[in-house]
Description:
37% of the residues lie in helices and 24% in strands. It folds into two domains: 3-49 and 339-388, Roll (Urease, subunit C, domain 1); 51-332, Metal-dependent hydrolases (TIM Barrel, Alpha-Beta Barrel), CATH 3.20.20. The protein has 389 residues and is an alpha/beta fold. The chain has helices spanning 72-85, 89-105, 118-128, 144-156, 178-190, 203-213, 217-223, 241-250, 258-263, 271-277, 296-308, 318-325, 327-332, 364-371, and strands spanning 3-11, 14-21, 24-28, 38-41, 45-49, 51-56, 108-115, 131-138, 164-170, 194-199, 231-235, 253-256, 280-283, 348-352, 377-382, 385-388. It has an eight-stranded parallel β-sheet. Strands 3-2-1-4 form a four-stranded mixed β-sheet, with no helix packed on it.
Amino acid sequence: MESLLIKNVLHEGVKTNIYIEGNRISAIGVPADKEASRVIEAEGKAILPAFYNTHTHAAMSLLRGYADDMPLQEWLTEWIWPFEDKMTADDVKRGTVLAAEEMVKGGTVFFSDMYFAPDKIAEAVDAAGMRAAIGVTVMENHSYAEREAKSRFIENWNDRTGRMSLTVAPHAIYTVGTERLKEAAAKARDNGLKLHIHVSETTKEVEDCIAAHGMSPVRYLDSIGFLGPDVIAAHCVYVDKEEWDILAERGVTVAHCPCSNMKLGSGRFPYELAIASGARITLGTDGASSNNNLDMREEMKFAALLAKLNGDPSLLPATEVLKWATVNGAEAFGIDAGVIAEGKLADCILLNLNDVTMRPLHNLVSNWVYSAQANVVDTVICDGKVIYG
């Protein structure tokens, strides 16, 4: 079995040696001369959990900077969807390869995607050595033949890497009708898969849902039996207290995307209600076309600052937002990682403490959330293997 020894690394304020055997952290505090297949000298570096990006459209890296500074519906209908109609499966793979490279360099080892050509996305993920939950996207305008092909893809899916899974991903309530949403939920549950959907991203979405169904999106999805602990709900910007209680009670995971929400003018996430509800909250970048990068460290900083914007500087401290970006995301997808501890899957990053943005080191987590840039990531380990550095 392959093994990795990380020597002289700062962990929870103490310099130590960490031993990884196979794909798990075997021991913390081992002798420096312990035999290993590979040794990393980590003097001047700190170890932290890697990132889990719970909402992306990775191939949209090809649309970075293409259509900026406009409202969501105009952006989608007049620019993004017409562009995507011309994209081929090979284009999707190219865009995902580009996204994977960017994410890995920034310390991300997992992303939950919602796009097209899932077979090509899987090829890109495998080549990058990452983890991913690959969305099989559902939209109302898909033909019968396309729906059947996606159904067969789900039924024939076989992950030989141990690092990938599928999700059933109905785009949103405004692009997928009630019966198709019910079908998507049934398909996911029949196959033991997660559901991934945009929810309450804009005021227009909420208003249109009330006009069409007499209730807001969360209440509507709950009324048709869609919500459950297998659901990843992206955005959730316009969700009231009662709806947050519903999300928490149903065990729904929320993927908060602060940079995309700001750039598209969608609004401020209701941090106070979300946190008080006890719902599991995670972080996502959304696509590079609405962000315009895939930097999860930046998402942490913006989330923490936006939370404080209403006047409470103690809301969403650095330690908590780091959990959103790491262990909460891992737990949402059943990945036994997100913390540096014996027995956990070895998904971790080494940070360069000599970088000017990391000095002085009064508080490692605060520096990582508020001060650092992605380039302080020195080494990235996923599933026990070094994939960057």
